[in-house]
Amino acid sequence: MAGLSCQFYCAIHQIPHKAKVRSSISCSMQPSQSNIKVIITGAAKEIGRAAVVAVTRARGMEVAGAVDSHFVGEDIGKVCDMEEPLEIPILNDLTMVLGSISQSKATGVVVDFTDPSTVYENVKQAVAFGMRSVVYVPRIKLDTVSALSAFCDKASMGCLVAPTLSIGSILLQQAAITASFHYNNVEIVESRASATVRLQFMF
């Protein structure tokens, strides 16, 4: 980020709890002169709520906006079951939130937890207001990533796309790439109750 001297760390964990999987995010940042304003889209989702809590607890960052089509008008702090409300209502208009942040001339970033059909427009809106994006949208298509790359390169604005937040998945990908030099193709198969995910490397 331009004019920003800090390091941002974000770790997302899956914690078993009562036969369900809960998302937990931890963030930390080196001290800076002013807080980074974080806008979270998809804030009412489980992972979005975890991000709200993590950003609220982190030094150097603050939640400046919550965007979602659910729980519109409700305080995001209450939706996240926090002890005190954050006095930040959930809105379903990203442009409105971006406009209010840009007027303050503060450093801002948009964290996107929405879906593949809206992520491109969300990033375009963020860039229009001079903000960078961090995108975690599972099942995002390669065409969308390529379009985002071309758009952000033309706009000279960075965008981090994380199609998976699993450390295990990243390690498996690296192992497959290494193995591919010794085989014609390498395939990672991840089986789930709802679907089977296949990641193939062919040379």
TrEMBL record:
Assigned GO CC terms: chloroplast stroma
- The Dihydrodipicolinate reductase N-terminal domain sits at 36-163
Which molecular function terms from Gene Ontology are attached? 4-hydroxy-tetrahydrodipicolinate reductase
Annotated Pfam families: DapB_N
Q: Keywords on this record?
A: NADP, Oxidoreductase
Tell me the domain of life. Answer: Eukaryota
Instruction: Tell me which Gene Ontology terms the entry assigns under biological process.
Output: lysine biosynthetic process via diaminopimelate
Keyword Flavoprotein set for record: no
Listed name of the protein:
Dihydrodipicolinate reductase N-terminal domain-containing protein
Q: Which organism is it from?
A: Rubroshorea leprosula
